[in-house]
Structure formats: structure tokens, C-alpha cells
Design goal:
The chain has four helices and five strands. With about 170 residues, the chain is an alpha+beta fold. The chain has one domain.
Amino acid sequence: MPKLSHVLAALMAEVTTARHMADEYTVSIAKRYRDDPLLRAMPVPRSRLSELVVDLPLLVENVSQPAGLPSADEAPADTPQAFFSAAEQTLHDLGKSPEQLKDAETAGDLPSLEVLVAADQLKAQTAAGGGNLVRLKLTLREEAMEWSTDSNGGERGGESVARLLPE
């Protein structure tokens, strides 16, 4: 059963991969436009998703509580109370540095939500009264990075320095 973090990471990776594929296709179109005398005078088309809204139904199957972290009033793991308790702890942990979060994850100190996301499993579980369906509404916004080259030679004695900067 997947963890919620893995489901969200896969979703974000797929959106990023889609952008990469679209950019590669844009490059191939740009080459065709460059080589065609009529198309050369026209702008190269490029699509951009500035925002993507995803409505993700899921069922929380299990909440792993780290040692020393009390459960949400000892509620069963499939109740909304347990879900919100783990979510609150996760939001609290967002204030930690990436190194602290990685150390906590490795040590098992972060709560983890195991979820069902497959439609057939969700239907079967909710029809059998086996859990509370939760809907996450996610809004993903595109923020790209681009390479910038500082060619004034500032800090490296005449060398160009490439930096990855927000678009």
C-alpha cells in the first residue's frame, strides 16, 4: 500500500516529466520553423500550464505514529481525526530543514499515511463501510528554472559562471 508522500511525489514527477516532453517537442517544432521559409516568420507555439488542479480521492488505511508521538485521542487509524492529527504533525515538521526531515524520516520519527488511491479499491472499501473517503484538492503551479550565465568574470577571475535561477 503506497504512502501518501509517494503518491504525491509520483504525481508531481509525472507533471514535471510532461513539461519536459512538451519542451522537447517544442524544440523539434522550432527546428522545423527555422528550416521552413514561411514558418520562420511565425512564432513557435509553446503550451504552458500555469496551474493544474487535481481532485484526489483517497482512503487512509493506516497512520504510523512514531514512538513517543501520541495518537489522535487513541482514535482508530481510519478515522478523519487520525488523518488530521498526522497532517498537523507533518505541517509542523515542514518548519524543519531538509536535513532534519531526512534524519527524522530515516529514524522513523515522522508520521506516515498509507492510502488507497485506486478507484476499484476505493469503491470496494467505501461500499463495504470500511473507511472514510478523504478528498484532497491539490493545486500545482508551474515554476520553472533556467540557466543564466554570468560572463563578466566577477568571482572566478574571468571565467563564466552558470547558475540555475527561477524563470
